Amino acid sequence: MSAQLLSHSEAAGHRPTRAAGLPDIDAADRDDPLAATMYVCDIFSYWQRCEPMFRVGPEYMSRQVRCGRALHQRVFAACLCAATVMQSRSQH
What we know:
Blueprint: H1 3-8, H2 40-54, H3 69-90
């Protein structure tokens, strides 16, 4: 990444700390410029700042007229079907 982009990074010069015992999940991608691992902290910081502005209200689901028990059952069935397909593919 360019020095200019790095200088604008909120986390530039800041090495995030991990709790003891947690693996560095970005280590394998550290040399991949497309992974942009140096901006992970910036991305999560941005998401945390935006979350309160776009949070769904606690009454959201109760206002949904089409979300009855039948819909929940169909969604559950679709998820179960997808999980079964993924499981069978991973065994072959």
